[in-house]
Structure formats: C-alpha cells, structure tokens
Protein 1
Amino acid sequence: MQICVIGTGYVGLVTGVCMADLGNNVTCVDIDKAKIDGLKKGVVPIYEPGLKDLLKRNKKRLKFTTSIKDGISKAAIVFIAVGTPPTKTGEADLTYIKSVAKTIGKNMNGYKIIVDKSTVPVGVGDLVESIIEDNSKGKYDFDVASCPEFLREGSAIYDFMNPDRVVIGAKRKEAAQKIAEIFKPLNTKIIISDIRSAELIKHASNTFLAMKISFINEIANICERVGADVEVVANGMGLDKRIGKLFLNAGAGFGGSCFPKDVEALRSMARNEDYEPLILNAVMDVNKQQRKIVINKIKQMLGTIEGRQIGILGLAFKPNTDDIREAVSVDIIRALLDKGCRIKAFDPVAAKRVKKIFSQVQYVKDEYAAAENAECLVVLTEWNEFKEMDLKKIKKAMKKPGIVDARNIYDPKKIKKLGFEYAGIGRN
C-alpha cells in the first residue's frame, strides 16, 4: 500500500518506519529540511531504541521529503502526525493540524483517506474534513478517519508491533476497513467506531493511566503518615485483576508529552461543555504536589538546602528516551537553583536537552561523578544503570551519604544498612 505520514516526530517517524516494515511503501513528510536531510542519510533525530536499525532495514520502502504535494501524490492513505501542543489554557493547539489539512486540500489529486494519528480533541475529524473540502480545487472525494496512537516513548517500536488494540473511527465503514488492512499483520483486536468515540478513547485512556499514578501517589503520602509501605500496598492492590499492577508506581509524578497534555485537553473539553471534571482536577493537583514533596524531602534530609551540593540522577521524564517535556527534573532543578544549590547532573541521553534550559548545572559523565562531594543524591529517572550502580562507590564519593529516591528503585533496608540516610516516596 502507498502511504504518506505527515510529521516525523516520535509518533510520525515510528509510525512511518513501522508501516514500512510491514511491507508498505511510505513517504514521510516534514517541514524541517535539516531533519529530512538527516533522515535521508539514516540519521535519527530522536532517541528511541531500535528505530535506527528499523530505518536502515527499510530504506528501500521509505522516502523522506519536505513537500506534502509529493508525499500525497501517489498515497492512498495519508496519516497526519503533527504536534498538538497545549495552549496556556490547556486546550490543544490545532495550528499545525489546520495548516496540514489546508495543504492537503490544495494538493488533492484523487480519492484519499486522511487519518488523524495526532492526539486531537473530539470534533477535529469534522474540522479536518471541512478544511480539506473548502480547499480542494478539484472537489475530489475523500474520507477522514481517526486512528489514535498508543505508543510509549522508550518502547514505541514494540508497542506499534504488539498493540493491545487498534482503534479506527470513520463515517464510512469501507474507509475504516481499508485502514484496518495495514494493521492486519499485527494480529490484534481492531475496534471500528465513529470518529468522535475514537478521538475520545485516546484521551480517556491516557487520563485513566495518569489517574492511577496520581492515586498511588496519594496513597503513598498517606502511607508515610500511618507507617505503611506503599510498595507493599501497591502490590496487594495490583494482584486484583480488576485493578492490575501497571502504573501503580509511587514517585515524583508523571511527565512527558502525553499524560499532562491529554489530561489538560480533556479537562478543557469538559469545561467547554459546561462540565467541571472533578477527578481530572485532582489528578493534576496531586501530580504538581509530588514535585514539592521531593523538594521537602531534600530539605528534611539536609536541614537547609541553600548553597548545598546536590547530585541529580536522571533528567528524562522516563527511561529509554531523551524527552524532557514536562519532566520532573526541570521543576526540581529550577527549585534547587533558586535556593543557590550547586548541581551535578547525569542522564545517559537527555543531558544535552536540559543543558539548553540550565547552563549553570554541571553535566557529568556518569552517576559516580554526579555523587562526587554531593550532600544529597536525588534519583529522578529510573534508568537501569542507577538500579545496578555500585552503592559503596557512591557512598565513598559523597560528602554526606544521603539518597532521596523519588522513583523508589532501592530497598530502604539495604540502603540504610550500607550507611545511607534514605528517603523514598511512601516507604516505611
């Protein structure tokens, strides 16, 4: 099948490369010429495990261009995968969606299926349809559909190839079935619905997962006050099949490009319909509070944080990605710098991105350098190397052996036995 994917960010590039791996001919379009020139040479602009190898393996079935006209000319199906960043009010910014829809309309040359892959508010399918219709010079027939993505950064290739489900929303069943053909090799459940239900499934899913994180963080805060251990509590809860273990990990809260944005977007949608979403409000309030709790734990450990030497382990919002959007590390570092702290930070892949925000932080080569002369070591991303580091070596490097484990990756008893002062989230 001839496919065009507009947008080569996390979603667009992974989608395009994986569809090529399924045997389709895919043209990826982006207005960023430097990015496209790099992709033509095999340079991947994002850190995503396995993506570079997949790109190399499918180079004969992949094309890259800055021209939407060239991209859609032979395509039967066109996926829109551009960004929908939040506005100041929390609503999704549809500037790129509207621009792409207008350009598609102007360059239509026959029947096509236009698919929203971007995370969009309910009703954007209708908006895209009207924009294309208004700008189509030849008045060609077309269908607009929604096929939301459920990719996790750091495991996006696996998630695409092993989906729990594929959701396709369209007005005409024939269009949905045509899209479904792309995903049949994945041997998964394909849900066909109306467009608005498909659009809402994405927001509802991410918001529910964010709610689980905020819920277990609230339980963690209660655990600390009553003398319970949130790890034990979460395990006991997770064994209930109705609840499940996933996303019951207490810590510093969620970040990234999806959860905060999608919760805010759903909250804005609800308010636009004159409904105040009480649960969604609480999800965001608890998440903001967790960052303050981490700062308070550092204060409790040191007595005062003004001018202290702090080591930061982890800058990306989660492991296996260099994405720092809405990352806990950014808020924590900003708060520490405001108090005059001296910071050494290490992350395997995300340091370059954070350096653009905080030039005064010293970015070091490994976790041991981050611990050098530190009076407190703060774990903000649960990278595997932090779980397996030599704690005796860490202790020897530190001025004062104290760890604030904002991701609960260590056993408190073992850490304390080694002579560390330890503070986790909701740990007894």
Note: DSSP finds 18 helices and 14 strands in the chain.
Protein 2
Amino acid sequence: MDETEVSQFGALFQEFLERVVHTARSGPEGTESLVARVESFVESDPLALPVVTEQFRSFEHATIQVALEHLLERPGIRHELVGVAGGGREHHSLTELLEASRRHGAFWVGAVDYTAVPVSVDDERTCVRFGLYLVDDGRQRLALLLRGGNPSHGQLPSLEVLARTAEDGRAWLAGLRDERAARNALRGQVLSFEPSEFEPGVGPIRFHRRPELDRLDVVLPDGVLERIERQVVGVARHRERLLAEGRHLKRGVLFYGPPGTGKTHTVRYLTGGLHEFTVILLAGPAIRFVAEACAMARVLQPSLIVLEDCDLVAEDRSFTPNGNPLLFTVLDEMDGLTSDSDVCFLLTTNRVDLLETALAQRPGRVDLAVEIPLPDAAGRRRLLDIYGRGIELPAADVDQVVERTAGVPASFVKEMTRRATLIAAERGVALTEAEDVHAAADELMAAQEVLTRRLLGTPGEEEGEVGAYPSRGWFAYAPRRHERLTAPPD
C-alpha cells in the first residue's frame, strides 16, 4: 500500500468516525441544531463572529443576573432565552459549542438550566446556570452565553458575548458592568468571606443577620460612644460637606482593651445601626482576604470593613510572600483606597502592644483609637440592669453586687446573671431572686473557676495560681456558697 492509498484510507476512516460521532451525538428527532438557531438569529455565520468573555466570582452570580435582566428590559430591546443540550457542554466555550454543533451535531437547543443563589440570610434568587440569550437591541443582534461556575473543576462563572465586532462585545460588557455597580445584590448586606474548598482564595459569601441592639445597651464611659459614632457614622452623614472642603472620607478606628469588655458588642451595635452600609466581616484566617474586601468595599460604599482580633496577625507571616507580617498587608490595603472612598475600617484587639509598632510604621491608617476599658461602678450597674432583666434584685443587693464585682468585664456580668437564672430554675422557683445572683457570683468566685474567670476576660490572676489573691476585685478569695464577700482574708 503506497502513500496515496494510505492517505485515502485515512480520509475515509476520518469521515467514518465523524459520521459515527454525528449519529451518536445528534439530538433527538425534532430538535434544532444550536448553530442553526444562532445562525438564523444573527443572520450570518456565527463561527465567523468574535466572542468576548468576562469571568466573575461565584458570589457575583446574582448581581450579574439582576444587571442582565435590567439591561434586557430597556425599551427597544427584544430577547429570547434558550437552553443548550448535549453532554460535556460545560467544558466548551461558546465558539466550541457552535463548531461541535455544526460538525458533529453535538449540541442542540434544549431546556434552560437554573440554580438558586443566596442573596441574603433568608432569600435566594433564581439565576440562569446555563443558558443562551439571543438579543436584538435595535442596532445589532448578539448571543450571550451565561454559565454558572463549577468550583470542583476550577471554573468561574462567565458571560460570553458573540457580537458583530469585538468592540461591540466589549461595549456591551461595559454597559453590563455599569449596571452591576448600580444594582449589586450585595449592597447593604452584612457578609463575610468563606475560603474556597478547591483552590486558594475566596470561596462563597456567607450572609449574616444584621444585629438589633439598642443604644442604651452599649455600656461605655461617658462620651466614648459619641466619639465613635461621629467618626464612623458622621463622616458618611456629612460626606458632601467634607468633600466640598477637601476633607478625606476614608477612616480607620481601633477598639482596644481587655477581653470581654464590649469591643465586639460595640461593633454589633454599629453594624445594626448602619443600615445603608455594606458590612464586611474579616476575622481569624479570613483577614487574608482583605484585598478582596477592599475591592468590594469600593464598589459598595458606604462600607464598613471589620477586622477583629488584629493582634492575631500582627506577627503572622504565613500569607505574605515577602515575609512581612500579615498586619502590614492589611495596613497597606487600607492605604490603597482613595481618600474620597466612603469606607471605614474598624479594628479590634486585646493586645494593643502588638499593634502599636506596626501602626506607628504605617501612620495615617487609624484616625481614632478608642480604649474599651473594664467597666467602672456606674458601668457595672448598667450592665446588671441590662443583663439582669427579669431578676428580683433590691437596691441594696444591687449595690453589693456592683461593689463586689469590681474589676470584672461585661462578659462576667452576663454569665453571672445567666447562672443565677439556672440556679433559680433548679431550686424550682418562678422568679430569679437576689440569693440566686449572690450564689452565681459565689460559684464563679470559687477556686475551681479560676480558668473560667480567665476565659471570661477577668484580669489580675497569675497563670497557674488557682485562687490567688489579686490586689483588687471580687475574686479576692473564694467564699463558701451563699457567703457574702466583705474583705479579703488577712
């Protein structure tokens, strides 16, 4: 067999294989070829037209859907949504789908695939997971393939635009970006980033219910909350005047103080009251997503980025290729926002000593540092009133409890009142009374509760010294059950 015969055999065998594949892959009888539908709509050969593609994050899927629907609802625009049927379609670009449809009959017009995408704590939005929009905008005809992502295969969601020219496709995507910015489904939400299960970087978005806290439930020294509100809320409220006078909007606020004093509680109050703000929560390892958080905050401003327990990353070099602590990366991202960005960074720490050097080396990132101290007597009285609702506690007992809880954080008062209710319930009485509160305090003061006290944020006891006598505070010694504390032993 010479070369000519070999070439002829190869051509015949290839034709045979294509016919076999065409027969195996062709759609059911009566179905319409995908390429035929697109060709009849655009009135030209679709394989000769350019395709412009834009990828986006999975958490942007609902926003893309909303923006696309609003674009298609504009006057003078007609559109049709069709599905794409055929095995393996998710692995092919729009051009490849059309080519395989023409050559092998591999893909045909079918049902549209949909998926439910969360858009808040309680709501979902139905979005196209795989569908082809045939759009006539009055000037030209386009085909838009919208597909959801497949994280397990490393595929991001995307929108592919087949248009008369590449410039037309890019212009259409630019209009979609403007619509996305105006109608972002994440605007005004409280959310946090989840790590991706399949690759480094951000995965899905987790939505949080906006807290509802009364201002009177925030126990801080006089004037402190007013300063915080002026810096966080006041800048947004007086945005136009500040800009008119050349002032910057970007700001950073640091809450510092011992554990359990109310830093997170104050953050929750601000989060609950800033209904027009998009709040992005970054805590623990999620702080490494600060770049993504800043990018989102720019789009969704006014925004609040909360970075809790920043001291945990003050010396953490595990996420930075140049070996600098992660906190430096956080501070650099803060500085990267323009001065007119209505974005507030809210940092909390129990160890301001670990942050001070880094903050001093990156001046201007934090405009206000607020100490959230251990509550004084007036503060403990307010805490007892807040957390002791429903407890029968005469004024004399209130005075005694306030006096003997000197040096405790708010978290201790909260736990003490809960234990008092449990003690009353175990006694089988309907109301929680003063003796239950004193019993709960006695129990928490016991030597065996030293670790509990430390975990509640109470300072003053040396590590390993159970029942140690600090220089002050209600834990001066461990009294017997129901015994009143008056003074430490000699």
Note: Residues 462-490 have pLDDT under 50 and may be disordered.
Protein 3
Amino acid sequence: MEKLRAKLLAFPAADLNTFSKGKKKLQSIFHPGRVEYVDKEPDILVFLTGGSERIALQSVREYGFYLLLASSANNSWAAATEVKAWMNQNNVSSMLLDYSSASTIELVDKLFDVKNGLTRLKGQRFGLVGEPSDWLVNSFIDPFIIKTKLGIDQVDIPWSKVSLEASDGIATDFLAFFKGANANALADSGNIYEVLSKVVNDYALNALTVECFSVINSCNATACLALSKLCMDGVTAGCEGDTCSLLGMMLSKELFGVVPWMANINYVGTDELLFTHCTIPANLLQNFTLDTHFESGKGLSINGKIKAAEVTIVRFDHTLSKVFIGYGEVIDSPYQKMGCRTQLALRVTPEVTSYFTHKPLGNHHLIIPGNYVVGFDMVARMLRMERV
C-alpha cells in the first residue's frame, strides 16, 4: 500500500524545533503505516506557521487534490486560508481542515483508501459482453474516457464469441449456495455462471457487464444468479451492459471493499424512494428466496432483504464528469408482485428526492450498505467530478 505524503510548512527561517513539535502534534492524526513526511509531491499540506504560503505553492500541481491542515496557533490558519483561496482560483481542488478535529482523522484515512483504490484500478480490464441494452440511452461511457480518467481498459466481447452450450459441470458451491430452487432452472443458471466464469478467465477480466436479455431470449434462462455469485467470487459483475454502473461498482469494491447493488429507481415520493432489481450480490442480504425474472417471467432471480440500516446511493454520469452521492435510511424491504424481485424502500431528504425528479443522471443507481458519503465525496474531488 502506498503511503500518503505529508509536507510540513513553516516560515522560511523556522528552526528544526518547529518541525519536531509539529510532527508530535500530528501523531494522533497520522497513522505511521499510512503517512510519511516528504518535501516533494505531497498529498497533504500541514501549515505549522504563517509565512509559509510561497513554500506551499512550490509543491502544488494544477488539477491536483490536497488536504490542507491548519490550527489556531502561529497564524497557521491564516496561511492555509491564503493558499486555499489561490487554489480555488487556479484549478486545484482542496479541503481545508482543522487538524485537531476528530473528523480530520476520518478524512485522512479516507484519502488513504481512495488513493490506493484508484491506484489498484489502473490496468484493470472489464468485459462488455454483447451491447448495452437498448433502453440505456444515457449509460454508456466512451472507452477512451474510461481509460483516460480511471486507467481501466474495456474489452468488447460479442455474444457470437461466447458459447452458451451446457458446460461439463457446475461448481458445487454455486449449487449449494442457491439450493432449493427448481433443479432444471438452477442447472440453467449454473451453466450461465460457468460460461461467464470462462469468459472472465479467457479474457483476463477483473469485471464484466452483460447484455443479459440476449441470454434469456436464446436459452430461456437468466444471468441473475450467475452475476450475484461472480460478485461474491471477487469478480464485479453487472447487467444490461451498463458501463456507468459497472465502473461505480468497480470503484466501490477497490476503495471500500463492497460490491454495490445496481438497482432501478422504482418510485420517488416526498421523502421516500423505492429501488428494485432482480439480481444483487447475495452476501448483501439477510436472507433471500429465488423467484422468476420479473420482465420475462423466466429463469431465476433473487428476492432478498438487505442487511443494513443505512445506505449510500451513488450514480456517475456518462462522461465521468458528474456524480450523485446520497444517503438513505432503510424503511423496509417490501414485495410488490409487479416489480423486480429484490426491493428496498428508503427514507431520504427533500434534496435527494429533488435530484431524482429534476436532475437524475440515469435510471440505475448503486446502493451500498453503510454510510460512504465522505469516501465518495473524496473520490469526486480527486477525479474532479461535479457533485449534483
């Protein structure tokens, strides 16, 4: 893991004792295994005294992102404020924080997670199996943008290159995990799992998104269980060929260790949202049953209850220049017969419902159990995305 790089700043004539005292104060904030002190290319600028503004600017690069830490002593805050103002006017993203605040410790840890997660993403490969579903008119990202912004390669895999013929055998852990379903239907789902697992291995993929309705039309089976199991295997897997959602899923997995649920927005009320979809990583659920796929009435899908009291809601736009980050409290996991099988009702603020009714970035949104708003806000800042 790459450590964060912190630079201590003081007026030009400051003695070594100033820096020694500064390091001592920072011991409660900086974990020694996560932060190192440097003179060049810092991630964090620590203002120990005033008169350090010019020195700070020597280490700043355009379009970078920095944490600025200051205190009420020795005109530290005054210097940090002047530098923050310069950054705001010169295409440099930053956050100015009080380094005695408990929230600063959380933000330093989040920056460590985000920086290393983004590094791990570089060089990864995802497969687009088939084409994006026809109804996804605002959910396809140009592969050049993906490569430029995230360092991830898209591999296009037409269905004509994928054999859906029955495999020699189905993994016993797949059959055991989804036991209790109709044997023939479970075997069909297991075969799709084996087919997609082979695609992952053959093309050396870290993730994939599948034009899943082609599978339903060709063999009367669904990919819902296969995608769920692949996510639990460590292969981020999405459906409908939605690259916007898949990239968000990959980010969440690498940065925070959670593969999200990609869900339809099903209803928007005054302070309530309803999300639904037929596949979900089953390890996000308290319990689940197997049902038919909603739109087709065929195959198997997952009807489950998410094990969370709160969730984070995330959606990227089709240019990776905007992101929505919201928070919701779990109300219920209802079951409406005329809807996709896993369903989740959330209590949200008026600002969140206003986003969905006035400026949504698309249909599919990612639901991550837990509160990751601060972490995703850091992602947005580092990738220079506008929060909507």
Note: The mean pLDDT is 93.
